[in-house]
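Sequence only, no structure available. Ideas?
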Amino acid sequence: MASQSRYRYILFDLNGTLAFDHDRFGDDQDYHATYRGIGGRDLGPDQLDGIIADSLGRLVDQYENGPFDHFPQYRDFVAEAGHLSQQELSLVEQTVAEHEIGQIPRDRVDLLRQLEKDHVLGIVSDLWAPAQLWRRQLASTGLDVLFGTLVFSCEIGAVKPDPKPFRTALDRLGADPAETLFVGNDLRRDVVGAHACGMHTAWLVGDEDSAAADTADYVLREMDEILRL
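Reply:
I predicted one. C-alpha coordinates follow.
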Protein backbone atom coordinates (compact mmCIF):
# COMPACT_ATOMS: atom_id res chain seq x y z
CA MET A 1 0.00 0.00 0.00
CA ALA A 2 1.16 3.50 -0.79
CA SER A 3 1.76 6.00 1.98
CA GLN A 4 -0.60 8.93 2.34
CA SER A 5 2.18 11.37 1.43
CA ARG A 6 1.57 10.59 -2.22
CA TYR A 7 -1.95 12.03 -2.03
CA ARG A 8 -2.31 15.68 -2.83
CA TYR A 9 -6.12 15.58 -2.70
CA ILE A 10 -8.46 14.01 -0.15
CA LEU A 11 -12.17 13.83 -0.93
CA PHE A 12 -14.77 12.90 1.68
CA ASP A 13 -18.28 11.62 1.71
CA LEU A 14 -20.40 13.75 4.06
CA ASN A 15 -23.36 12.09 5.79
CA GLY A 16 -22.25 8.99 7.65
CA THR A 17 -18.56 9.76 7.12
CA LEU A 18 -17.81 13.31 8.27
CA ALA A 19 -21.23 14.10 9.72
CA PHE A 20 -23.61 12.28 12.02
CA ASP A 21 -27.15 12.75 13.39
CA HIS A 22 -28.31 12.89 9.79
CA ASP A 23 -31.03 11.14 7.81
CA ARG A 24 -33.61 11.44 10.58
CA PHE A 25 -36.36 9.66 8.69
CA GLY A 26 -37.47 7.02 11.20
CA ASP A 27 -41.03 6.35 12.30
CA ASP A 28 -40.49 8.47 15.41
CA GLN A 29 -39.86 11.67 13.45
CA ASP A 30 -42.32 14.54 13.74
CA TYR A 31 -42.24 15.96 10.24
CA HIS A 32 -45.22 18.15 10.96
CA ALA A 33 -43.42 19.95 13.78
CA THR A 34 -40.56 20.70 11.38
CA TYR A 35 -43.01 21.78 8.68
CA ARG A 36 -44.83 24.10 11.08
CA GLY A 37 -41.52 25.48 12.30
CA ILE A 38 -40.61 26.71 8.82
CA GLY A 39 -44.00 28.30 8.20
CA GLY A 40 -46.13 25.44 6.84
CA ARG A 41 -49.84 25.63 7.61
CA ASP A 42 -51.93 23.93 4.92
CA LEU A 43 -50.94 20.26 5.30
CA GLY A 44 -52.11 18.18 8.24
CA PRO A 45 -49.81 15.66 9.98
CA ASP A 46 -51.24 12.57 8.26
CA GLN A 47 -51.25 14.23 4.84
CA LEU A 48 -47.66 15.43 5.21
CA ASP A 49 -46.46 12.07 6.53
CA GLY A 50 -48.13 10.35 3.57
CA ILE A 51 -46.50 12.66 1.04
CA ILE A 52 -43.05 12.24 2.56
CA ALA A 53 -43.39 8.46 2.91
CA ASP A 54 -44.55 8.10 -0.71
CA SER A 55 -41.95 10.44 -2.20
CA LEU A 56 -39.05 9.02 -0.19
CA GLY A 57 -40.17 5.48 -0.95
CA ARG A 58 -39.91 6.06 -4.68
CA LEU A 59 -36.70 8.04 -4.29
CA VAL A 60 -35.03 5.26 -2.28
CA ASP A 61 -36.14 2.69 -4.83
CA GLN A 62 -34.33 4.56 -7.59
CA TYR A 63 -31.43 5.32 -5.25
CA GLU A 64 -30.94 1.61 -4.68
CA ASN A 65 -31.70 0.32 -8.15
CA GLY A 66 -30.90 3.15 -10.55
CA PRO A 67 -30.60 4.68 -12.95
CA PHE A 68 -27.92 6.62 -11.08
CA ASP A 69 -26.85 8.91 -13.92
CA HIS A 70 -30.23 10.61 -14.33
CA PHE A 71 -31.45 11.19 -10.81
CA PRO A 72 -34.39 13.59 -10.38
CA GLN A 73 -34.53 16.32 -7.77
CA TYR A 74 -36.46 15.46 -4.63
CA ARG A 75 -39.21 17.94 -5.52
CA ASP A 76 -39.92 15.84 -8.62
CA PHE A 77 -40.73 12.86 -6.42
CA VAL A 78 -42.88 15.10 -4.20
CA ALA A 79 -44.75 16.46 -7.20
CA GLU A 80 -45.75 12.91 -8.14
CA ALA A 81 -47.06 12.28 -4.62
CA GLY A 82 -49.82 14.88 -4.73
CA HIS A 83 -51.11 18.07 -6.35
CA LEU A 84 -49.30 20.71 -4.33
CA SER A 85 -48.69 24.37 -4.96
CA GLN A 86 -45.14 25.50 -5.65
CA GLN A 87 -45.04 26.96 -2.15
CA GLU A 88 -46.05 23.67 -0.55
CA LEU A 89 -43.58 21.76 -2.72
CA SER A 90 -40.84 24.02 -1.40
CA LEU A 91 -41.98 23.59 2.19
CA VAL A 92 -41.99 19.79 1.93
CA GLU A 93 -38.55 19.96 0.31
CA GLN A 94 -37.23 22.11 3.13
CA THR A 95 -38.78 19.83 5.74
CA VAL A 96 -36.86 16.85 4.35
CA ALA A 97 -33.70 18.96 4.06
CA GLU A 98 -33.98 19.80 7.77
CA HIS A 99 -34.10 16.08 8.56
CA GLU A 100 -31.17 15.27 6.26
CA ILE A 101 -28.72 17.74 7.74
CA GLY A 102 -26.21 16.62 10.37
CA GLN A 103 -23.29 17.85 12.43
CA ILE A 104 -19.57 17.46 11.88
CA PRO A 105 -18.16 16.58 15.33
CA ARG A 106 -15.37 18.62 16.87
CA ASP A 107 -12.77 15.88 16.44
CA ARG A 108 -13.59 15.67 12.73
CA VAL A 109 -13.23 19.45 12.41
CA ASP A 110 -9.81 19.33 14.09
CA LEU A 111 -8.76 16.52 11.76
CA LEU A 112 -9.90 18.44 8.68
CA ARG A 113 -7.98 21.53 9.77
CA GLN A 114 -4.87 19.42 10.22
CA LEU A 115 -5.23 17.71 6.84
CA GLU A 116 -5.99 20.98 5.06
CA LYS A 117 -2.49 22.24 5.81
CA ASP A 118 -0.93 19.75 3.39
CA HIS A 119 -3.79 18.59 1.17
CA VAL A 120 -6.56 19.99 -0.98
CA LEU A 121 -9.84 18.76 0.50
CA GLY A 122 -13.27 18.29 -1.03
CA ILE A 123 -16.68 16.80 -0.38
CA VAL A 124 -18.61 14.50 -2.72
CA SER A 125 -21.96 13.69 -1.17
CA ASP A 126 -25.35 12.28 -2.08
CA LEU A 127 -28.05 14.62 -0.77
CA TRP A 128 -31.68 14.00 -1.54
CA ALA A 129 -33.07 17.41 -0.65
CA PRO A 130 -31.56 20.73 -1.82
CA ALA A 131 -28.08 21.44 -0.44
CA GLN A 132 -28.65 25.04 0.68
CA LEU A 133 -28.97 24.11 4.36
CA TRP A 134 -25.73 22.15 4.34
CA ARG A 135 -23.94 24.92 2.48
CA ARG A 136 -25.29 27.48 4.95
CA GLN A 137 -24.22 25.41 7.95
CA LEU A 138 -20.70 24.88 6.60
CA ALA A 139 -20.40 28.61 5.91
CA SER A 140 -21.76 29.65 9.31
CA THR A 141 -19.19 27.48 11.09
CA GLY A 142 -16.34 28.55 8.83
CA LEU A 143 -15.80 25.03 7.54
CA ASP A 144 -16.57 25.84 3.91
CA VAL A 145 -13.14 27.44 3.47
CA LEU A 146 -11.46 24.10 4.24
CA PHE A 147 -12.80 22.55 1.05
CA GLY A 148 -11.69 23.26 -2.47
CA THR A 149 -14.98 21.95 -3.81
CA LEU A 150 -18.39 20.81 -2.56
CA VAL A 151 -20.14 18.41 -4.93
CA PHE A 152 -23.72 17.48 -4.04
CA SER A 153 -25.68 14.96 -6.08
CA CYS A 154 -28.88 17.00 -5.91
CA GLU A 155 -27.13 19.77 -7.83
CA ILE A 156 -25.68 17.68 -10.66
CA GLY A 157 -28.45 15.13 -11.33
CA ALA A 158 -26.45 11.99 -10.57
CA VAL A 159 -25.74 9.90 -7.46
CA LYS A 160 -22.84 7.68 -6.49
CA PRO A 161 -21.58 5.21 -7.63
CA ASP A 162 -22.10 6.92 -11.00
CA PRO A 163 -18.80 8.53 -12.09
CA LYS A 164 -20.26 12.02 -12.53
CA PRO A 165 -20.07 13.17 -8.86
CA PHE A 166 -16.46 11.98 -8.54
CA ARG A 167 -15.34 13.36 -11.89
CA THR A 168 -17.04 16.68 -11.19
CA ALA A 169 -14.89 17.07 -8.07
CA LEU A 170 -11.72 16.02 -9.87
CA ASP A 171 -12.42 18.43 -12.74
CA ARG A 172 -13.16 21.35 -10.43
CA LEU A 173 -9.92 20.79 -8.53
CA GLY A 174 -7.85 19.92 -11.58
CA ALA A 175 -6.89 16.80 -9.66
CA ASP A 176 -5.14 13.69 -10.91
CA PRO A 177 -7.12 10.62 -9.70
CA ALA A 178 -3.84 8.85 -8.93
CA GLU A 179 -3.01 11.63 -6.44
CA THR A 180 -6.47 11.51 -4.83
CA LEU A 181 -7.75 9.58 -1.83
CA PHE A 182 -11.50 9.17 -1.38
CA VAL A 183 -12.83 8.50 2.13
CA GLY A 184 -16.34 7.12 2.62
CA ASN A 185 -18.44 4.72 4.68
CA ASP A 186 -20.40 3.07 1.86
CA LEU A 187 -18.55 0.25 0.10
CA ARG A 188 -20.70 0.20 -3.02
CA ARG A 189 -21.16 3.92 -3.55
CA ASP A 190 -17.99 5.45 -2.14
CA VAL A 191 -15.28 2.82 -2.45
CA VAL A 192 -16.30 1.06 -5.65
CA GLY A 193 -17.44 4.30 -7.29
CA ALA A 194 -14.25 6.22 -6.52
CA HIS A 195 -12.03 3.27 -7.44
CA ALA A 196 -13.71 3.04 -10.86
CA CYS A 197 -12.63 6.65 -11.45
CA GLY A 198 -8.99 5.82 -10.72
CA MET A 199 -8.84 7.12 -7.15
CA HIS A 200 -7.39 5.41 -4.11
CA THR A 201 -9.94 4.65 -1.41
CA ALA A 202 -10.27 4.49 2.36
CA TRP A 203 -13.32 2.68 3.68
CA LEU A 204 -14.57 3.91 7.07
CA VAL A 205 -16.16 0.80 8.54
CA GLY A 206 -16.34 1.68 12.25
CA ASP A 207 -17.51 -1.43 14.08
CA GLU A 208 -18.98 -3.09 10.99
CA ASP A 209 -17.71 -6.29 9.41
CA SER A 210 -15.00 -5.57 6.88
CA ALA A 211 -14.99 -8.90 5.07
CA ALA A 212 -14.77 -7.05 1.74
CA ALA A 213 -11.73 -5.08 2.92
CA ASP A 214 -9.67 -6.02 -0.12
CA THR A 215 -11.97 -3.81 -2.22
CA ALA A 216 -10.50 -0.68 -0.59
CA ASP A 217 -6.88 0.44 -0.38
CA TYR A 218 -7.33 1.17 3.31
CA VAL A 219 -9.84 0.17 5.96
CA LEU A 220 -10.41 2.66 8.78
CA ARG A 221 -12.01 1.89 12.13
CA GLU A 222 -11.58 5.50 13.24
CA MET A 223 -11.30 8.57 11.06
CA ASP A 224 -8.07 9.77 12.66
CA GLU A 225 -6.33 6.67 11.32
CA ILE A 226 -5.91 8.71 8.12
CA LEU A 227 -3.02 10.44 9.88
CA ARG A 228 -1.26 7.09 10.46
CA LEU A 229 -1.75 5.42 7.08
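The longest strand covers residues 120-125.
Hope that gets you unstuck.
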